[in-house]
Design goal:
This protein is of the alpha+beta class and about 575 residues long. About 30% of the residues lie in helices and about 20% in strands. The protein starts with a strand and ends with a strand.
Length: about 575
């Protein structure tokens, strides 16, 4: 016989298991006290939505079914399930509460958790009856802690929890899970000057427990959820992050959120771009997330952007996308790094910089496919709120990608920079830059390089020129003749009544016979102002040759020849000083 779990009673009628050495000790379950809960608490347990951390199981469930859910929770982030509540298909309300006739009849639940999994699961259970409705039977509420071991069910398989499903994994996935299990979280560190007594008096904890089912006292809750050390009474880091009025005053490391507004689109904003004094948000995790979202939304109202139709409007990001990247930063950051989360609001994007690289086996490549919690206790208990900020466990960053696409904005960017995880939401339309430029020109006479870059999110002036040139070569736009150099602008080529394109510029004859003089160059149709054609001839005659790539283009644009008529696909100078096709 290998290791097994010794079940020992505690004062509130629940039993707790601990892996102990081989022993023949048994427990007389008839001596265990059962807990009677009120009808409202029973209904709350029955109606609780199944999630990554919660499930209902029938009292008729086999030991194999209970092993799977128990080991899956232990292999993932921990959680709870209740045995003795039927599926929604069976009925509604109390019709679903169909418990065991006695505690002895519930023995298979304990066998499944303590004996039939390898190694035994870290669990605790409560036997629940409903006050005044004892005839409905005893339900077993099992709480499973995240384990440092990889647990196998009796069938030899390894199960994990993914959203509301229990799934088996094999091969490399088991290896990745095993490696991740070796990582200890700073959230479990004890706080020297913050005790169970301090924690139990926190307003946030009291407010949370008002809606928690089954009804629990603060002292019972913090003990059952392993938020304190039972011997010393010291509270853990996770408890301060979740419930302390000012976590940064309790935890030894910085753990607030800073919000900074930068009036720039630069990749690396500098101090001179800073608008005002950065805000510092502190408080319990839930409240800090909500306040950060409120403040950032207020800042958005002061940031104006040019829309493709040319109007000015406040910057707007999908609220779900913004919420998810902030929640992700709070619950998955490395609290062992003494630094705050930084939310930077720039003219063309929002960046959330979270302390800590990706945990466990997570990489940028599997970020949207796999999941791993650096802080499982914070993740699990934050999910117990009535409207939890991390409601859809494992879907957070995928939600960001989906919501940005629905808003027709470009996909978010994720990167690692010097031990920090950075999520970036760009306010860049998903449409092709050419489409954005043409939409703008539908309501405006002309567009400049600067305006076009603001519209499309393109940062390079030369890259924006490439967009203009592609539209010019497609016969869609032309340069405004009187505006050259830094004042350069582009306008739409209007169509005549017969469907042909017209221009205020004179057409230049095309001399195809000279095409062979420039091997490898394809020359396209273009119209050139007569005064520029004359200047082009004078320049060419003076040189007596085609300009060098870095010389000024003869057309008078002020650009280098390689950037203008010397570009592949652009009109070129023939050997006789004319432009040829």
């Amino acid at each position: 016989m290998g290791l097994f779990n010794l079940v020992r009673p505690v004062t509130d009628g629940s039993i707790v298991s601990d892996p102990l050495e081989r022993t023949g000790h048994t427990v007389d379950f008839r001596r265990m006290e059962q807990r009677s809960i009120e009808l409202v608490d029973a209904l709350a347990l029955i109606e609780r939505e199944e999630s990554h951390f919660w499930d209902h199981k029938s009292a008729q469930s086999s030991g194999a079914v209970l092993q799977k859910i128990g080991s899956a929770l232990a292999n993932s982030d921990g959680g709870e399930f209740i045995v003795g509540v039927e599926d929604r298909k069976v009925g509604t309300g109390l019709d679903r509460w169909r418990g065991y006739s006695s505690i002895e009849a519930a023995t298979p639940v304990l066998d499944a958790l303590a004996r039939d999994t390898t190694p035994p699961l870290p669990y605790s259970v409560e036997f629940l009856t409903i006050n005044g409705r004892e005839e409905l039977g005893i339900a077993v509420l099992a709480q499973i802690r995240k384990s440092e071991s990889v647990h196998h069910a009796a069938d030899g398989r390894v199960y994990v929890r993914r959203s509301t499903s229990t799934t088996s994994i094999t091969g490399q996935a088991i290896t990745d899970l095993s490696l991740s299990k070796g990582a200890r979280s700073y959230e479990d560190q004890l706080l020297r000057d913050y005790t169970a007594d301090d924690l139990e008096l926190e307003t946030e904890l009291g407010s949370f427990l008002q809606s928690y089912s089954p009804s629990t006292t603060p002292s019972d809750f913090v003990r059952k959820q392993r938020l304190i050390d039972r011997d010393s009474g010291q509270a853990k880091v996770a408890s301060a992050i979740l419930y302390a009025e000012t976590p940064s005053a309790v935890a030894p490391k910085r753990c607030s959120i800073k919000i900074a507004r930068y009036n720039t689109r630069d990749a690396n904003p500098r101090r001179e771009h800073l608008v005002g004094v950065p805000l510092t948000i502190d408080g319990p995790a839930r409240a800090m997330i909500e306040e950060t979202l409120r403040r950032v939304t207020e800042i958005f109202e002061s940031v104006s952007v040019i829309k493709p139709d040319g109007t000015m409007a406040s910057v707007n990001y999908p609220p779900e996308a913004l919420k998810e990247i902030i929640v992700n930063a709070v619950i998955h950051r490395d609290y062992n790094m003494s630094d705050d989360i930084l939310v930077s609001v720039l003219n063309n994007r929002v960046e959330v910089r979270s302390p800590g690289a990706l945990p466990g086996h997570m990489t940028l490549d599997n970020l949207l496919k796999e999941r791993f919690s650096r802080n499982p206790t914070i993740v699990r208990l934050l999910n117990k709120y009535p409207d939890p900020p991390n409601k859809d466990i494992g879907e957070g960053l995928r939600t960001v990608v989906e919501k940005m696409a629905e808003a027709k904005l470009k996909a978010p960017k994720f990167k690692i920079d010097g031990g920090y995880f950075i999520a970036e939401l760009g306010h860049t339309p998903l449409a092709r830059p050419q489409e954005i430029v043409m939409e703008y020109l539908e309501s405006h006479a002309e567009v400049t390089n600067s305006i076009a870059r603001s519209l499309t999110g393109i940062t390079s002036e030369n890259a924006m020129k490439d967009i203009f040139y592609s539209l010019r070569n497609a016969g869609k736009i032309e340069r405004v003749p009187e505006k050259v150099g830094n004042r350069s602008a582009w306008r739409v080529i209007e169509s005549t009544d017969d469907g042909t394109e017209s221009s205020n510029q004179q057409s230049l004859p095309y001399e195809n016979e000279h095409a062979d003089a420039q091997p490898g160059i394809t020359l396209l149709n273009r119209v050139i102002p007569e005064q520029l054609r004359r200047k082009h001839r004078r320049r060419t005659n003076r040189l007596g040759r085609v300009p060098g790539r870095n010389e000024e283009c003869p057309c008078g644009s002020g650009q280098k020849f390689k950037r203008c008529h010397g570009r592949p696909g652009s009109p070129q100078q023939s050997s006789e000083g004319e432009l040829s096709e």
